[in-house]
Amino acid sequence: MLLHLQKVLSKDEVRRAREVLARATWDDGRRTSGQQAAQVKNNLQLPESGEDSQALQELVLYGLKRHETFFSAALPKHISPPLFNCYGGEANTYGNHVDSAVRYLRNGGRVRTDVSCTLFLSEPDEYDGGDLVIEDTYGGRRVKLPAGDLVLYPSTTVHRVEPVTRGQRFASFLWIESMVRSVEQRALLFDMDTHLIRLRGALGDQDPSVVGLTSNYHNLIRMWADT
Question: What is the pLDDT of residues 139-161, one digit of tens each?
């Protein structure tokens, strides 16, 4: 399931993030990649342990927490601390790769990468190229979103970032270990929840059909969730 979430960060929050990124000191992005990915990765990344990263991580996590669609789609069990990258100049691309199955955290914990997320922090007209291309059964899906918007997609997919030929592309990226590991089951639950929200708006919370379908939804989560 590939999903576009709008306005995870407000315009003011994007502006604040960009102010931090503009004064930041960047590292070679290959330092945090696996062996295969490092061979095709050529970008810059904000050091994880710095004060700038920690301040921005709080900003992004707060945006995710208040976004109801995010929870419904990802059903997060664990969220890795958001990271931040920059594409432009000579460090401008990331070739085809698959995210590592497990993300090892600085605190000694680990996150199984079920869901990948990219939160765009540059407007599309600020740079040329830089499309996130996600391969699925329909071919390559190109994603280039407004600043503050996020794309959510299965970590099992092959994906890449096309070369940035003008300007700079700033983004945050993170991984989620979902309570429901199966992509298909998560998609069914998200579809059911989306329709339930519409039914509640039309019929009210106490309509017998709404109550019955809500029960079915939560019973499926009980059946499938690993908490």
Answer: 899 999 999 999 999 999 999 99
pLDDT, residue 29, reads 87
Please, how many CA atoms are within 13 Å of residue 172, restricted to the half-sphere of its CB? Answer: 32
Secondary structure letter of residue 196 according to DSSP = H
pTM here? 0.94
How many domains, the chain? 2
Tell me: do 214 and 144 sit in the same domain. Answer: no
For residue 83, the model assigns a pLDDT of 96
| Domain identity same for 99 and 26 | yes
CA distance linking residue 41 with residue 90, whole number of Å? 12
Are the C-beta atoms of residues 130 and 87 closer than 8 Å to each other?
yes
The Cα–Cα gap between 21 and 19 comes to 6
Cβ atoms 174, 80 nearer than 8 A: yes
* Cα angle: 170, vertex 167, 42; to 5 degrees: 60
What is the distance between the alpha carbons of residues 96 and 70, in angstroms, rounded to a whole number?
26
Contacts of 223 (CB under 8 A, 6+ apart): none
CA distance 199 to 152: 25
- Average pLDDT of the chain, as a whole number: 95
